[in-house]
Amino acid sequence: MNAPTAAPKAQFKQRVFSGIQPSGSLHLGNYLGAIVKFVELQKSHDCIYCVVDLHAITVWQDPAELPVAIRDVTACYLAAGIDPKKHIVFNQSQVAEHAELAWVFNCVARLGWLNRMTQFKEKAGKDRENVSVGLFAYPTLMAADILLYRATHVPVGEDQKQHLELSRDIAQKFNNDFGKSIAAHGHGDVFFPQPEPLIQGPATRVMSLRDGTKKMSKSDPSDQSRINMTDDADTIALKIRRAKTDPEALPSEEKGLEHRPEADNLVSIYAALADISKADALKQHGGAQFSAFKAALTELAVSKLQPIGSEVNRLMQDPAHIDAVLADGAERAQQIATETMKAVKDIVGLVRR
Ligand code: AMP
Ligand code: TRP
């Protein structure tokens, strides 16, 4: 017989939350690092997928382009196979509770915690005095996004790991600071779960096609550095053909990819698109020259991305439909958000209607 276990901890309903910023066109890194996982998790979890427009405006966004970018991310979600009826798809600014909970978290998180965020340091660079306050507070809004729904699992790319750790720290400090009040209001001993990052597979960090040491990113000035979700077959072929490589043939084992960032990146992309491991990709293509491997990669990338790209283009012809999907999602998200905010106000001691 096993010894009796300790009293069960508060149980949280398993729920997935994630978001993508509408700050430029989505690329292969977003697709493999995030969207593929979003689609997969629909089978096993209740999922909430957000277009995080309030995060996007932490840096300047042209007001004429932002609505298009918001609809574009939404269209990518739908085209990739996210079901907005079974799950929830919406844009962050339609549910005001995100900003409201973020304020409470601004009062829970410590300045020292935010000072450690590497993404802020990278984005602010030497111009620290001149970036927005929002860019600095960005991670507390992200914690609010997740914890507003008391989400337990968060699929993201590798670059978001530190932000997820901060979300866990905020949840824990809130639970500790307000422990007595949480219990007094009948919520047991913890109010927020510790959200778990889901960072898995061969492509959690897709690199630039021009430089295997730099992340593929929306903000890279060179469009040749990334494959966009709406690139056509010829553009994808050209970008892969021009992708930086080294003169060696592909190794047959993963160890042979060490110190070959560009080769490693292309093999990782291939493996992720084919849904196989890097080791298996190398079993198939080890010994090949890049010319042959790039041809195989192009064929695979086109076969996966082109149907999505053309569906995005089709959906973008009908913005009213996209807006209706977002409005419906926002309404359903808000029902959950309102309940959480009521409880948070009671726990913090704010008088409410
Ligand atoms: P963002 O474009 O910054 O809003 O990122 C949206 C999602 O895509 C997040 O989960 C990121 O971690 C992920 N992501 C962004 N760029 C990459 C990349 N180069 N490789 C893998 N995942 C990425
Ligand atoms: N910070 C994330 C990114 O840039 C986007 C994001 C905002 C997010 N809120 C989130 C991701 C909540 C997961 C969960 O990629």
In total, the number of domains comes to 2
How far from one another are the termini? 52 Å
Q: What is the arithmetic mean of pLDDT?
A: 95
Query: What is the strand arrangement across the widest sheet?
Result: 1-2-3
CATH architecture heading of the largest domain: 3-Layer(aba) Sandwich
The helix/strand series, from N terminus to C terminus, equals EHEHHEHHHHEHHEHHHHH
Helix content: 40-55%
Estimated structural class: mainly alpha
Report the CATH superfamily of the largest domain.
HUPs
Q: Report the strand count.
A: 5
What does this structure look like?
The structure is a single chain. The chain is mainly alpha-helical and 353 residues long. The strands form 2 sheets. It has a 3-stranded parallel sheet. A two-stranded parallel ribbon has the order 4-5. Strand 1, helix 1 and strand 2 form a beta-alpha-beta unit. Helix 4 packs parallel to helix 14. Adenosine monophosphate (AMP) binds next to helix 1. Tryptophan binds next to strand 1 and helix 7.
What is the element layout, followed by pairings?
Blueprint (H helix, E strand, L loop, with lengths): L14 E6 L7 H14 L4 E6 L1 H4 L9 H15 L7 E4 L5 H10 L4 H5 L2 H7 L8 H15 L5 E3 L5 H17 L1 H6 L11 E3 L34 H10 L18 H14 L3 H8 L4 H27 L2 H30 L5
Parallel strand pairs: 1-2, 2-3, 4-5
This protein binds adenosine monophosphate and tryptophan.
